[in-house]
Amino acid sequence: MLEPYDGKLSRTVLRGEEGRKPLALPGSREDNMKETSLRLTEPGEPPTPKQIESWMGRKAYGFWTRVSKMIAQSYPDVFTPEWLFGGKKHGWSLRYKKSKSFCTLIPEKNRFVLVIVFGADERSKVETIRHELSVRTRKEYDEATTYHDGKWLLLSVDDEDMVADVERLLAVKRRPKNVRKRA
Predict the structure, then answer these.
(1) Residue 73 per-residue DSSP state
(2) pLDDT tens digit sequence for 150-173
(3) Class (C level, CATH) for 49-173
């Protein structure tokens, strides 16, 4: 589970994919952001929306804002997003959590990734909606590593199908308050 240390900013570290290290990209320092990693790794204050958009690019940032708004609309007054700093290796991430972890949004260079951890009960619920998910999401889910605390699914949110899959998977974690009625 993701649990913060005591202090002003959380220093929680997200586990990466087994054996995967962040790629070293050549580049220079830009507005409190370093391009030596895929992640925003400059300690201090959390990144601003403008920094996130600059880092991720307009398209990825559009998906970031859509998912953020979807969470706010589907789960009003449930989550208070919390910026976490995972050190130079893992950088900044935005966690949504109430009593247990809901999801974590990670701004990476030119892309937006989302992490959802599914416990045993949640994994059986995912099986009931599996047929509704895209082929790509089913493949990522099948290949995700299961640890003692659950199955860690990392998704690159880069198209409309993925946004729809994220919404379905988050509904497995927690039923939305504002369920849209279908005509």
Answers:
(1) H
(2) 999 999 999 999 999 999 999 999
(3) alpha beta
